[in-house]
Structures are given as C-alpha cells and as structure tokens.
Write a structure and sequence with these properties.
The protein is an alpha+beta fold and about 90 residues long. The longest helix is centred in the N-terminal third of the chain and has 13 residues.
Length: about 90
C-alpha cells in the first residue's frame, strides 16, 4: 500500500539490516529483543527523550520523534575491551 508510513518497529529492523549489511529476513525477530507493541506505544507517548536497547548485537536508540539510530556491533566493542589483569 503506497504512502503508508513504516512503523517504528519496521524502521528499527530496516536500520539494523542496513548497519549489518544484510537482508531484514536474515535478522532475528525483533520480539526476541523488545516487545514491538510496547516500543510503538512508548515512542508514541514520549514527548521528548529516547529509548535504547540491543537488537541483533547492535545498540538501537529511538528518539521521541521516531528517529532510529544504530551503533556499531556491540559484540565487536566488547571483544575490543582490554582484558582485566587482576
């Protein structure tokens, strides 16, 4: 259906697929990381601020205006952390 705005959940999956350089069908279901209905309701209710969560090893942030930002692969950052020498 032309002209229908994608949901926040759809935008999250598309943004993570782009960051991962893969097809959306290669990603795990979003509901394994966050309840998509709760995400929609929370973003719709936010006057300002953002919500962040991890999905498919990426840190995802959704702003109150619906903007979706995806940080680099979380597992890559963890693997690069220096080891404890204790």
């Amino acid at each position: 259906m032309a002209g229908v705005e994608p949901t926040t959940s759809e935008r999250v999956v598309e943004a993570v697929a782009e960051a991962s350089e893969c097809d959306v069908l290669e990603l795990p279901p979003l509901y394994e990381s966050i309840d998509p209905d709760a995400l929609e309701a929370l973003v719709d209710a936010m006057a300002n601020g953002d919500i962040s969560f991890t999905y498919a090893n990426h840190r995802v942030t959704v702003d109150s205006d619906g903007t979706v930002s995806v940080d680099a692969d979380v597992t890559e950052r963890i693997e690069r952390l220096p080891a404890d020498d204790d």
